[in-house]
Amino acid sequence: MNSIKNQNAPFGSLLADKMSVARYRDGAWSAAEIQTTGTLAMHPAMHALHYASSCFEGFKAYKHADGSVKVFRLDRHVERLRHSARTLVLPEPDAAQLRDMVLQLVDRCRGDVPDAPGSLYLRPILFGTMPNIGAAATPSNEAMLIVLASPVWDYFAGGMKPLKIMMDDVNQRCAPHMGMVKTGGNYASAMGPTLAARKAHGTDQVLFCPRGEVQETGAANFLMLREGQLLTRSLDSTFLHGVTRDSLLTIARDLGYKVEERIFRIPEALDWAKTGEAALSGTAAVLSGVGTLVYQEQNHLVGGGDVGPHTRKLRAALVAVQQGETPDKHGWLTKA
Ligand SMILES: Cc1ncc(COP(=O)(O)O)c(C=O)c1O
Predict the structure, then answer these.
(1) Is 228 helix (H, G, I), strand (E, B) or coil?
(2) pTM above 0.85, yes or no
(3) Backbone angles phi, psi at 275, to 5 degrees
C-alpha cells in the first residue's frame, strides 16, 4: 500500500502499490506485467488525450470470513469492457488475458483487501496511445490496458442516508448511442448538470430523464420498489447496463418480486414515489435509497423520505452473496 490503511479515505482515493499493465502494438497485446503503481510516460499527441478513446470498468473483490478473496461478476465486467472497446474502435482486450490480469493483481494485493464490509475496488482502464493529433476519424492502433486496485471501506459507515436527486428532463447524460459504453466522455458530459443541480438544490445526483423518460443518474442505475414489485427502465443503448442492476433484478425475482423492465416517465415515477421506494444501484452505491426527488423546483418525498424496507432487504440480500454469507447460487463469485 502507498499509505496507511485509512478507513475514512474517500472512495477511490487510496491505491494499492501494484498495478497490472499490458500494451497493444503492431497488432498484438504484450504479456501483462505487474508494476509499481505510479506515473506513466505519455506522448502529448496520444489519441486518448485528444479524441477520448478511453474506457474503463469498476467492480470489487471481497474477503470472506474464511480468508478467501472472491471477485464479484468478473466475466460480466470483462465483457462490458470489451464491448466498450469495440464501440470506441479501440483494440479489444482478450477476455482470458484481462481476467488473468485482474486475478493476478488481486492475488498480489491480497494483503490490501479490507475486511467486510470493505472490499478491493478494481479499475481496468483502456486507452488509445497512438501519437497523432490528426486522427479524429482514425482509430488508435496502439493502446494501454492497466488494472488498478483501490481498497474501499463501508460507503455507509455513518448509516444509510437517503439521497436527494434532481429529475432533469432538459439535459442528457450523454449521446443516446453511447450510454451503454463506460467511457470518460459520458461522465464529463454529466458533470456540469450534476454540479449545477447541487448548487441550485443541494442534490446528490441528477436523474437524467430525456424526453421525460426516466433513465439513470451520472454514475448509477435507478430502480423503483414497492411490495412485491420492482420497476426499472428496459435495456437499450442510452444508459449503462449495470451489473449491480442485473444482480438485484435476479435477486428480486428469486425473492418473488414482479420485475418490470420498461420505459416509464416522470409522472409515473412521482406517483410511485408517493407510497413506494426509489433507489440507485451500482458497484459503489450498492443500493442506495432515495429520500427526495426534486422536479421543477418542487421537492417530492419518496415514501416517508427515509431508506425504505424493500431497498434495505434487497441491498442486504446482495451484500450477503458478495460477502459469502449466503450460497452463490448463480455462480457470480470467482476465487482469486
Ligand atoms: C453511469 C452509470 N450507470 C450505472 C452504473 C452501475 O453499474 P454497475 O452496477 O455495473 O457498477 C454505473 C457505475 O459503474 C455508472 O457509472
Answers:
(1) coil
(2) yes
(3) -125, -15
